[in-house]
Predict the structure.
Amino acid sequence: MMKLQFDWRSRLSRFRVWALSFRGGITLLCLVGLLLVPLTGREYLARIVITAMILTIFAASWDLLAGFAGQVSFGHAAFFGISGYVTAAFVKFVGAPWFLAIFIGTGWAVVFSLLIGIPCLRLKGPYLALGTLAFALILYNLFLTGTWLGGTEGISALPNIGSVFVEFYIMAAFMVASLIIMRAIVDSRLGTILKAIRDDEVGADAAGINTTVYKLVAFMVSGLFAGISGALFVLDITAVNPAVYQPLYSFYAIIMASIGGIATIYGSIVGSFLFTLLSEFLRPLAAASLLIFATLLILIIRFSEEGVMNPFLEHVRDLWDKIRGR
Amino acid sequence: MGLILEVKNLTKKFGGLTAVNDVNFEVHRGEILGLIGPNGAGKTTLFQLISGFEKPNSGSVRFNGVDITGKRPYQIVNLGLARTFQLVRSFRFLSLLDNISVACLSPRGREAFGEVGIDAAASSILASVGLVDKARLPPVILPHGDLRKLEIGKALGTNPEFLLLDEPFSGLAHEESAGITRLIEQLHEEGVTVFMTGHVLRELMTLVPRVIAMHQGRLIAEGPPKEVASNKIVLEAYLGRGEGFA
């Protein structure tokens, strides 16, 4: 009993230290802000934020594979799409409850991450990118020209998983849990090994690391979280069609992760919220919105290779220190 | 005692060039063996073949009686044969401590240090190569001499019985070389077998009781360094054939 109590107290005091630290404070502030969004009663805003949260998981899953394991995939839409399709099919044709369908869909994404990962293992750099892109394109064409699972039309009119407010909190829980798990993975010993493979694959081999196995693990973990986001995406828009396999979706993940900052995991939050909110607010400008967006992207990449999150946080921290007179 | 490494009829061709040509030699357990030869003699290729980074066209390599010819590098490392590279390699964005931890996380490292002992093992290796005060720094900002030490540290993380050191002194100032020499002597006292190259004989002379010399892919001499250094064929290999020379 004593021991349990002691543990609880140390946890609490560690949490207090973290919450009072700069990073902890910002994180809690953002989290509270996020959870308050539905209470504003604006359904439109809540819908956009839901999309941003789902895409955050997707971007972070790409970041885990590319930013930490160094395996740059241009075909992440394959994992996103297959999971979305399987989830939709199980909800629509089998009548499975949504939370079960997510598991099944994600399982398929993991299987596909192995199917794509194994033949692509020998490929490096641009060749790996092209190899993964090719797989996603094959899936796109298979689903576009095939007649199964709704053919070109896809599957639509899935039941809602709840009111927009219920859905908001479910998605928020998925996002927070996914990000914490991914960050824990990259900070773990597994993460150290993945980073070593990214920095120098020959060196990792010489350090006795079976790089093949670890690269496959990275593919599977990344596929798993891309699968979760694909399933949530389909449940959110209550429909799926072959467009989810388009290279465009793969590039969304890359763009969002790059805006936020590659090899950060949490940068994906900043990237996908900026991306989603901006593209929504620029929508009335039609074609001009793309132009503005592309310009912004070029500016971000030109002036901040490490994305916007870390440099921004540093500025805020400097400002904070100045305000407190340090 | 006994043999730890047996190399038999090892041959490697790159197109028309035979980089390693029918090489035979043995390394005894616990010894320090030197490999000398002019640039392009095939020393590095021989190391690549032993450590599994290149596959030979013919011949075999046995380590501790086990045939390791054609095995993948990480498999050979986990049998206890680790190597360093002539051009230093490092995990650029990891701290020095994590650079060593990666090697400690190999199956052989985990077995030696235990899951809970990995951090402690990495720190003590870092201390033994003299980099403990830089544990949190990334390798990119280190001077060349420290990277050489890190290179050896990474190999030690796999708890090797046998170390292949490819040009451990290259690009080092005299004091830095002395540091590496002390480190190698210390490893030797701990029972690690060392097989190292150097194209400059001076550093090897003091450290190594026996050397083998290579030229154009073939072994041309073997013996104590003084004898090999004065061997006529070795001199010709280094300086070229010429009547009025030397």
Observations:
- Residues 174-189 of chain B form the longest helix (16 residues).
- Chain B touches chain A at residues 51, 53, 72-74, 77-78, 82-83, 85, 89-94, 98-99, 101-103, 105-109, 118, 154-155, 157-158 (CB under 8 Å).
- Residues 38 and 238 of chain B are 6 Å apart (CA to CA).
- Chain B has a mean pLDDT of 91.
